[in-house]
C-alpha cells in the first residue's frame, strides 16, 4: 500500500480541511515528519489508519474521540485517503460517529459512522466498491489482507509500541504469526486428525453395536440353538451366521410346499369367481329387460299426444301459406289508417290557423299605436349611459376593496394557523429527536451486550467442556480403580495357581520312581541304574498326581496369566485416557480463567448454572433491544424530513407576513379612490347591479317594443301563408284516403277466399294454428324421435326375451358365500407365503449387512492404526512435546530472525544477535516462540527484556524489518510498499542513528516508502524530504519541504 493523497477535516488538531499530497515526494522514498510536540505529527498516522480501518494508529485513540476541538460546528469530521496497491488505485472515505449542532434551535443530533470505498480508473473516474461501514471494512480487509493490528505491527509502528513484538511472550507471538502466515490450516490438520481418530474409534464401537443390533433381529424360526446363541453376551457373529444357513434351508423347504398348496387353492377360487361373474351377468340382463318393458309401456301411453302433435304440425304448415296475403292486407290497412290520421290532423291545423290570423291582425294594430312611448325611453337611456364609466369604476374599486380586506384577514388567519402548526411540529420533532437519541444510546448497549454474550458463550463453552471432561474423568478413574482391584484378585489367583503347579510338579516327580518300579522285572535292567537285580523297588502311592493333573495345573496358570495381561492392558488404556482427559481439563481450565478471572473448579457447577441463566436473560434482553433499535433508520428519515418541513414552514410564515403587509397598503390606496367616486354618483345608482338593472330594463323595454312590432308583422304574414298551404294539403290527403280504401277491399276478399281453400273455419282458427319454422321443426323432430325410440325399444326387448327364455334367476347369496370361503383360504395361504418370504429376505439381508459391517470394521481398525498415531504426533505427544502448528510457526520465526539479524548485527557492530528460545518451559506454559539476545561480549544468551532503550529500538526495528521481508516473501498477497515509524530514534547515539538510517536506506532502495516521525536533528539532516507540521492558535497545517 502506497499513499497518494490524505485529506483530514476537523480531525485532531486540524480544524479545517487539510490535504497532504504524497505525490510531491516524486522519486523520494524516505521522508521525516517534524513539528512541535502536540502539533499533530502522529495524527497523520492516525488519519491513514482511520481512513483504512476506522481506527487510529494507537489503542488509546478511538474514532469517536478524534474530532477536532478547533473545528466550527458546521465542519463535519471526515478523512479520505487515495492510495495504490498492486497496480490498482483506490479512494476510501470515512466519517466517524459524531454530534452535529442542529440547524434550528439548540442541542445536537447524532450522525452515524459512514464509509465509502472506490476504485479509480486511469481517467480518474471512481467506481463504487462499498457504500457503508460494514461493506467497506470487509472489502478493505480483502484488498489489503491485513487487519488493523497486523498493519500496526508491520507497516506502522506507533509511538511507544516498537517493543511490543520484540518482548511479547510465545502466546502473543503465536497469535501474530498465525494471522500473518495463515497457519490455521496446520491447526485444522491437528484437529482434523484428532477428530478423524476419535470418529474411527467411535465408528468401530458403533459398528460392533450395530452388528449386535442387526443380529438380534434374526428370525429364529423356532431354532433352539439360534435362540440360545442370541442370548449370549457378547454375540458370536460367526456361530450365528452358520446357524442362519440351516434356518434358511428349512424356510425354503417349507416355502416350496406352500407354493403347491397356493396353486391348488387359486384354481378353486377362480372357478367360484367365474360362477359368480356369470350369475351377475344374467341378473344384469334381466334388469335391462325389465327396464325396456317399462319404457315401452310409457311410450305406448304417449301415442295419442303424438297424433295430436302431428295434426298441429300439418295445420301450421297450411297457415304459413297464408302469411304473405295477411301481411299485404295489414300493410294496406296501416296505409289507410295513416292517411285518415293525416287528413284529420290537417283539418284541425286549418282551424287553428284561422284563429291565429284573426289574432295577428289585432296585435299588429296595437303595436303601431305604441311608437310615442318608445321615443321617451330612448332619451332616458342616453342620460344613464353617460354615467356608466363612473358607476362601474366605483363598483370595481369597492369590490376590490372588500376583496383586499378579505385577503388581509385571510393572510393573518393563515399566519396564526402556520405558527400553531410550526409549534406543534417543532414539539413533535423534539420528541422524535429525543427518542432517536435514546435509541442510539440503546444501540451502544446492544453492541456492548453482544460482546458480553460472546464472552458468556465462550465461558459457557469452556465450562461445558470442563463439566463433561470432569464427569468422564471420574468415570474413567473409577474404571481404573475397578481394574486395579480386579488385577489384584487375578494376581492372587495366578499366584495360587503357580503354587498349586509347583506342588503338583514336585509330587509328580516323586511319583515317577514308584511308576518306574512298577515296570521292573527280574533279569531286565533298570532304566535308571541299569541293574538287573531289584531287591528294594520303590512303592507306588495311590495319591500321586497323574500327568493329566499336571496338564490341568499348567493350563490354570496359563489362563490366569492371559487374564492378568488382558486386565492390565485394559487398565493401561483407561489410565492413558485419564491422562489425556486431565491434560484437556488443564488446557480448558487455562482458557476458562481468561473468561472467568479467579475461577475455581469447585465452583464449576455454580458458574455453569449462573452463566446459563445470565446468557438466557441477556439474549432475551438483546432481542428486546434489537426490536427497538430497528426503528432508528425510519426515525432518522422522519427527523430529517421534519427538519426540512419546519424550514419550509418558517419560510412560508415569512412569505405570508410580507403578502399581508403589501395587501394592507393596497387597501388604504383603494379606499381613497372609492370615496372620491362616491360624491359623483346618485345614491340609488351606486350599486352597479341596480344601475345595470335600470339601464337593462329601459333598454329591454325599447327592444321589446321593437321586437313586438316586428313579431306582430311577421306573425300576420306567416299566418296568411300557412293558411294557403294547409288548404292545398287537405285536398291531396283526401285523394290518398280514397285510393287506399279501394286497394284494401280487394286484398281482403282474396284473403277470405284462401282461408276457405285451406279449410280454416275462422280467422281465429287460422291465427291459433300459426307457428314459426323452428316450432314446426321441433314438432316434427319430436314425432320422429318418438317413432325411432319406440322401434328401438321393441327390437331390444325382443332380443333380451329371446336370450333369457327358459333361464331361472340365480341364487347369488350361495355363490358369493362359496367365493368368500375360497378367497379367505387363498389369502391365508398367500399371507403365510409372504411371511416366510419376508423372514427369508430379512435373514438374508442380515447376513449381507453383518458381512458388510465386518468388512467395514476391519477397514476402520486398519485406518485407526495409522490416523491415531498421526493424531498423537501432531498434538504434541512426541519427544519435543511440540504441536504441528507451533513447529511451523517456529520455522517462520527462524526465517524472520535470520532476516532481522542481518540488520541487527550491522546496527550493533556485530555485538547482538536474536535467537529463538528452544528450551521447554515448565508446566503447560506455551513456549518455543520467545526471543533471547546473544551478546558477543559475554558469549551468553539473555532475555530481550534486559536490553536498554536504544538497544531495544535497534532490535525492534530489525525485527520489524525482518518480519516485513519474510511476510512479503511468504504471504504473496500482502503488499508492504510503505512503512511508518513514530519516534524511537531519540534513544540512539549518533553512530547507532547512522546504522539505523542505513538500514532504512536499504529498505527504500527496494522502492518501499518510509515515513519517520522524529525530533532527532541528525535524522532531519540526513533525509532531504520533510513534512513540516505547524501548530497555530486555531489548528495545525502541513507543508512539504525539500532540502537542496
From TrEMBL:
One of its GO terms (biological process) is double-strand break repair. GO terms for molecular function: ATP hydrolysis activity. Pfam families: AAA_23 (PF13476), SbcC_Walker_B (PF13558). Residues 255-349, 425-507, 625-662, 783-863 form a coiled coil. InterPro entries: P-loop_NTPase, Rad50/SbcC_AAA. Keywords: Coiled coil. Residues 5-309 form the Rad50/SbcC-type AAA domain. The keyword Repressor does not apply. PANTHER family: ABC TRANSPORTER ABCH.3 (PTHR32114:SF2). Heterodimer of SbcC and SbcD. Belongs to the SMC family. SbcC subfamily. This is Nuclease SbcCD subunit C. It comes from Lederbergia citrea.
Amino acid at each position: 500500500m502506497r499513499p497518494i493523497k490524505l485529506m483530514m477535516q476537523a480531525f485532531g488538531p486540524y480544524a479545517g480541511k487539510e490535504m497532504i499530497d504524497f505525490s510531491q515526494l516524486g522519486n523520494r522514498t524516505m521522508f521525516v515528519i517534524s513539528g512541535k510536540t502536540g502539533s499533530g505529527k502522529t495524527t497523520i498516522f492516525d488519519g491513514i489508519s482511520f481512513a483504512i480501518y476506522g481506527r487510529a494508529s494507537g489503542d488509546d485513540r478511538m474514532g469517536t474521540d478524534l474530532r477536532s476541538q478547533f473545528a466550527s460546528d458546521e465542519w463535519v469530521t471526515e478523512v479520505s485517503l487515495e492510495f495504490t496497491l498492486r497496480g490498482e488505485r483506490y479512494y476510501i472515505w470515512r466519517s466517524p460517529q459524531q454530534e452535529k449542532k442542529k440547524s434550528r434551535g439548540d442541542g445536537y443530533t447524532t450522525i452515524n459512522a459512514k464509509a465509502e470505498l472506490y476504485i479509480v480508473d486511469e481517467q480518474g473516474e471512481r467506481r463504487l466498491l462499498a457504500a457503508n461501514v460494514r461493506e467497506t471494512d470487509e472489502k478493505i480487509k480483502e484488498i489489503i489482507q491485513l487487519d488493523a493490528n497486523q498493519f500496526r505491527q508491520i507497516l506502522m509502528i506507533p509511538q511507544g509500541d516498537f517493543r511490543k513484538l520484540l518482548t511479547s511472550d510465545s502466546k502473543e507471538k503465536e497469535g501474530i504469526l498465525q494471522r500473518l502466515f495463515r497457519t490455521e490450516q496446520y491447526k485444522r490438520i491437528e484437529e482434523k486428525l484428532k477428530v478423524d481418530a476419535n470418529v474411527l474409534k467411535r465408528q468401530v464401537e458403533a459398528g460392533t453395536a450395530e452388528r449386535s443390533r442387526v443380529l438380534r433381529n434374526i428370525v429364529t424360526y423356532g431354532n433352539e440353538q439360534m435362540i440360545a446363541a442370541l442370548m449370549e453376551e457378547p454375540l458370536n457373529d460367526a456361530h450365528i451366521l452358520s446357524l442362519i444357513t440351516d434356518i434358511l434351508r428349512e424356510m425354503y423347504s417349507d416355502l416350496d410346499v406352500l407354493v403347491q398348496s397356493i396353486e391348488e387353492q387359486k384354481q378353486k377360487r377362480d372357478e367360484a369367481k367365474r360362477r359368480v361373474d356369470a350369475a351377475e351377468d344374467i341378473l344384469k340382463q334381466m334388469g335391462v329387460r325389465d327396464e325396456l318393458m317399462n319404457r315401452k309401456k310409457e311410450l305406448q301411453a304417449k301415442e295419442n299426444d303424438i297424433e295430436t302433435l302431428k295434426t298441429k304440425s300439418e295445420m301450421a304448415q297450411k297457415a304459413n301459406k297464408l302469411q304473405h296475403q295477411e301481411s299485404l292486407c295489414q300493410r294496406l290497412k296501416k296505409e289507410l289508417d295513416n292517411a285518415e290520421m293525416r287528413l284529420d290532423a290537417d283539418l284541425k291545423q286549418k282551424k287553428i290557423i284561422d284563429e291565429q290570423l284573426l289574432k295577428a291582425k289585432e296585435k299588429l294594430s296595437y303595436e303601431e299605436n305604441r311608437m310615442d312611448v318608445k321615443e321617451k325611453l330612448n332619451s332616458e337611456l342616453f342620460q344613464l349611459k353617460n354615467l356608466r364609466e363612473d358607476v362601474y369604476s366605483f363598483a370595481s374599486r369597492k369590490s376590490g376593496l372588500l376583496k383586499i380586506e378579505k385577503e388581509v384577514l385571510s393572510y393573518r388567519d393563515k399566519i396564526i394557523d402556520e405558527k400553531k402548526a410550526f409549534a406543534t411540529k417543532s414539539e413533535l420533532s423534539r420528541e422524535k429527536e429525543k427518542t432517536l437519541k435514546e435509541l442510539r444510546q440503546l444501540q451502544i448497549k446492544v453492541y456492548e451486550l453482544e460482546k458480553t454474550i460472546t464472552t458468556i458463550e465462550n465461558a459457557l463453552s469452556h465450562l461445558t467442556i470442563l463439566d463433561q471432561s470432569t464427569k468422564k474423568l471420574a468415570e474413567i478413574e473409577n474404571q481404573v480403580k475397578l481394574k486395579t482391584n480386579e488385577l489384584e484378585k487375578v494376581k492372587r489367583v495366578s499366584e495360587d495357581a503357580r503354587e498349586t503347579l509347583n506342588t503338583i510338579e514336585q509330587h509328580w516327580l516323586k511319583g515317577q520312581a514308584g511308576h518306574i518300579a512298577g515296570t521292573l522285572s527280574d533279569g531286565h535292567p533298570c532304566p535308571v541304574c541299569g541293574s538287573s537285580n531289584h531287591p528294594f523297588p520303590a512303592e507306588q502311592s495311590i495319591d500321586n498326581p497323574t500327568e493329566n493333573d499336571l496338564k490341568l495345573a499348567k493350563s490354570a496358570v496359563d489362563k490366569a496369566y492371559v487374564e492378568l495381561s488382558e486386565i492390565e492392558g485394559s487398565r493401561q488404556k483407561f489410565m492413558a485416557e485419564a491422562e489425556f482427559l486431565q491434560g484437556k481439563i488443564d488446557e480448558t481450565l487455562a482458557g476458562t480463567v481468561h473468561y472467568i478471572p479467579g475461577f475455581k473448579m469447585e465452583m464449576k457447577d455454580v458458574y455453569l448454572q449462573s452463566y446459563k441463566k445470565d446468557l438466557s436473560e441477556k439474549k432475551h434482553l438483546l432481542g428486546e433491544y434489537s426490536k427497538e433499535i430497528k426503528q432508528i433508520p425510519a426515525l432518522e428519515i422522519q427527523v430529517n424530513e421534519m427538519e426540512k418541513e419546519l424550514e419550509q414552514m418558517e419560510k412560508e410564515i415569512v412569505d405570508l407576513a410580507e403578502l399581508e403587509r403589501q395587501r394592507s397598503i393596497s387597501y388604504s390606496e383603494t379606499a381613497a379612490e372609492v370615496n372620491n367616486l362616491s360624491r359623483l354618483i346618485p345614491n340609488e345608482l351606486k350599486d352597479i347591479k341596480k344601475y345595470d338593472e335600470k339601464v337593462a330594463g329601459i333598454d329591454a323595454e325599447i327592444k321589446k317594443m321593437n321586437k313586438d312590432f316586428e313579431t306582430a308583422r311577421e306573425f300576420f304574414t306567416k299566418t296568411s301563408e300557412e293558411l294557403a298551404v294547409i288548404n292545398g294539403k287537405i285536398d291531396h290527403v283526401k285523394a290518398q284516403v280514397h285510393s287506399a280504401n279501394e286497394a284494401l277491399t280487394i286484398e281482403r276478399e282474396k284473403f277470405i277466399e284462401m282461408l276457405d281453400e285451406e279449410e280454416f273455419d275462422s280467422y281465429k282458427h287460422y291465427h291459433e294454428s300459426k307457428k314459426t319454422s323452428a316450432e314446426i321443426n321441433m314438432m316434427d323432430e319430436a314425432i320422429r324421435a318418438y317413432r325411432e325410440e319406440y322401434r328401438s325399444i321393441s327390437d331390444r326387448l325382443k332380443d333380451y326375451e329371446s336370450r333369457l327364455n327358459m333361464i331361472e334367476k340365480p341364487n347369488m347369496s350361495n355363490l358369493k358365500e362359496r367365493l368368500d370361503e375360497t378367497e379367505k383360504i387363498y389369502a391365508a395361504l398367500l399371507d403365510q407365503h409372504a411371511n416366510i418370504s419376508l423372514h427369508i429376505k430379512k435373514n438374508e439381508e442380515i447376513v449381507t449387512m453383518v458381512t458388510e459391517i465386518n468388512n467395514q470394521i476391519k477397514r476402520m481398525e486398519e485406518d485407526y492404526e495409522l490416523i491415531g498415531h498421526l493424531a498423537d504426533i501432531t498434538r504434541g505427544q512426541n519427544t519435543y512435546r511440540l504441536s504441528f502448528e507451533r513447529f511451523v510457526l517456529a520455522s517462520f520465526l527462524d526465517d524472520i530472525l535470520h532476516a532481522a539479524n542481518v540488520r541487527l548485527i550491522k546496527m550493533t557492530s556485530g555485538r547482538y544477535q536474536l535467537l529463538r528460545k528452544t528450551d521447554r518451559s515448565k508446566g503447560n506454559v506455551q513456549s518455543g516462540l520467545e526471543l533471547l539476545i546473544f551478546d558477543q561480549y559475554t558469549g551468553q544468551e539473555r532475555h530481550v527484556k534486559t536490553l536498554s532503550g536504544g538497544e531495544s529500538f535497534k532490535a525492534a526495528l530489525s525485527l520489524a524489518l525482518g518480519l516485513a521481508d519474510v511476510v512479503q516473501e511468504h504471504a504473496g498477497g500482502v503488499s508492504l510498499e510503505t512503512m511508518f515509524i513514530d519516534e524511537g530514534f531519540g534513544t540512539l547515539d549518533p553512530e547507532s542513528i547512522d546504522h539505523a538510517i542505513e538500514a532504512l536506506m536499504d529498505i527504500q532502495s527496494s522502492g518501499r516508502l518510509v515515513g519517520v516521525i522524529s525530533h532527532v536533528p541528525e535524522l532531519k539532516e540526513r533525509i532531504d524530504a520533510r513534512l513540516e507540521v505547524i501548530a497555530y492558535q486555531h489548528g495545525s497545517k502541513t507543508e512539504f519541504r525539500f532540502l537542496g
